[in-house]
Amino acid sequence: MPSFRFRHPSIAAKARWLAAALAAVLAIALRAFLQPALGDELPFIIAAPVALFCALMWGAGPGALATLICLVGTLLPSMPPDVLNRDGGVRTVGFALVLGGACVLVARVNALRRRHVRLGTAADMPLVRWLNAALFGAVLLPATAFVLVGWWTYDQALQASHDTVVRRADLVYEHARRTFDVAEKLTLEAALLTTGNDDVIRRHESDVRQRLSDMLLGVPSVVNLNVWDAMAVPVVRSDRAIDPTVTVIDRSYFTRQAAEDRGFDLSQVLEGRQTGRELFNLTHRRPAADGRFNGIVAVSLNPEYFRDYYRAILAQNTDVESISLVRTDGDLLARWPLPETGTTHVAADSPSLEAIRSGESSGVVHGRVGGSGEPRVAAFRRVEELPVYVVVSFSQAALMSGWVRTMGIVGAMALPITLLLIAVTAIARRRVQLEQQAQLDLHEQTRLRAASEKSVLEAHRRETLSTLTAGVAHDFNNLLAILTNSLHIQNVRHPEHASEPQNAAMRRAVQSGTRLTRQLLSLTRRQTLRPEVIDLRTWLPEIEELLRTTLGRSIALSVDVASNLPPVLVDAAELELALVNLAVNAKHAQPHGGVFVVSADGMVEGGKKLVTLSARDEGHGIPSDILGRVSEPFFTTKERGSGSGLGLNQVRGVAEAAGGELRIESAVGQGTTVRVILPAADVGPDGAAGSDETQGADRAGGSGGSDRSGGTGASGSLNGPVEPTVVPPMAVGHKFHGHVLVAEDNDDVAAVTIALIASLGLKVTRSVNADDALRVLRTPQLGDDIGFLLTDAVMPGAIGGVELAMTVRGERPRLPVTVITGYAENVQSALDAKLDVVHKPLSLEDLMARLQGAFGAA
Question: Is the model's pLDDT at 687 over the cut of 80?
Fold first, then answer.
């Protein structure tokens, strides 16, 4: 079962949560302190910015915690404000949820910004983070306060507009109520005055008319008063004598009362048949003792009277859009402003008409009427016992104009202050960021300078180590030359001892020393490279037996080469040595047996064709902390005395010298895979490498690269490479005839070399430096007798062996010259000039091949 570890919150994390809780408590306390001024409104006016600030500074969790604490504090009965009613509780919880979501959003945006900053540049300093919070607060706090104040004042403005609508409607209602009360009294008095026989009333018409006219004095709302009998014939009227021919039998207000007793009833707006004036009638039945229909009394009211009053109201109250006097069926009795021409009815989609038809006696409705679609508010109220309503309509924009003006003033006052705070905070933040960037640049420059100094010191150390190692290799080559030449001389002089075990051990020691010298020179990058085009499909199987011998019987070898593998341009001897080094490492990594898989395959990377030569084992692997150091010179994980620490360094040198790279993958307990990445060779039709770059590598000196481990060396000459001739064991009587000049500064090397050459029947002259050799060659008779020059590459004096060889070739182009070198420094020019260059230690076979070329067979 996997084990899980729970991370305990750090002290800093606990401090963030504690700070958010304290901030929320302070917000509750401050809101309670402001309760006398704010009342129960704006319960989160302090909590909102505090919670958002906590989310910005410490994350979504602390912000949500602050919101929750403020919500609990608001809902506590003992803490103001009091929101424990249905609407207040719902709005408070809803606002808290919105605020919590805002906290999460703010924290998320801030986290994304910080992540972007971390990816692009260094993280902000604490002061910059506080200034970021201050800048955010300079925007957030005024904006939050503006929104909260606007929300609070908007509710207040809505309530105030509702009260205003109701008050205006009440005012208009009172006017209509008084007007209709007067009209009702006049109707009742006229009905009482005209009780009795209609013929008697007509005979005393003038007296009755005068009494009716006196009743209407001082009543501007009434046009006239008419009394009609049951046949719709006029009985008397207040303004003039009756016309018996006029009848109202066709008027709806008459027929409605005749059909049933409607009490007080109102007619539509119509034109009087006798006066020709616009009016509407308030009608009532005339009383009769037997209850029969006895006609009606009609008080004609003037719509203009109502319009004049409504016009005055609108002139004094700009928020009032229109005032109407409407019957219950929607017919307009009076309206200001005047309706459109031909309009006598309220719009069918009017919210107030819908409320009237539903039987409501009063109320306030909201809606959009007409083509403009502008929101409106309307208050309506029915005049008691009459089928008529007063409707006062308001423009909602006009009602809220005061709120808009107030918020505009608040915004105009807060905006400059907010912009000033933002500007000051942004300037301070920018200056701190510039200072931080300057510090970062200084630190970066200091780091780069330290890295540069370290790199210079490392390069100096490597150069010093390389020079020291090259010198040691050079001296060691001289020692090997003394040993191998002395061994050859002894074998010539005493052939009976050539097959003794001690003789064979000395030869193996010389071969081991030669390989170690090549590794040292590979480390110093001062060995001559001999790159050639190699087809790994045939080359790898050829060295398979060598690898099996190196690995031993306990390690299984597998070689796998892709069929379509392109050739590579590399020093074959060094590549062979690299694989041997990898085989030795695999053998040490698998002491109890295992596998060693060598594979070669092609790939394309970065648009270039590459060849991957892989060597894999299943050993103990390399720890990740030292994986990057295993190719360093002299670094080894083997036991003391088990390795030189130059194997993987030599492999890396082979790869880099060929223009490739070394990649190592390893896991402890799973083995190691070493990949030598080499560029594919561009081979022309004749089989030669086609690119100038690869041809240049054929002449360059670089890392790793030498003759094969058998000790034979390839050389360059005037006519190109010369293949060494394999000479059979020397016979005592095998002699040459001629004169050889040997230029060698080391006395021991010179002694054994001279002895070896002299044993071959040749006359030998020695020079200790190049100047001395030139003197000998320029000496008459002596110089002309010299038939072969053998010179060391490095000698004391004004010029070295390479310069000597090039000078001699210029003066005596037919004189054979061979340059012996221990490493490649100062030899590149000799290779470019096609001089014959041989690596130390000089083998007898190489020497015999060149002597045969110079003097012929004895």
Answer: no
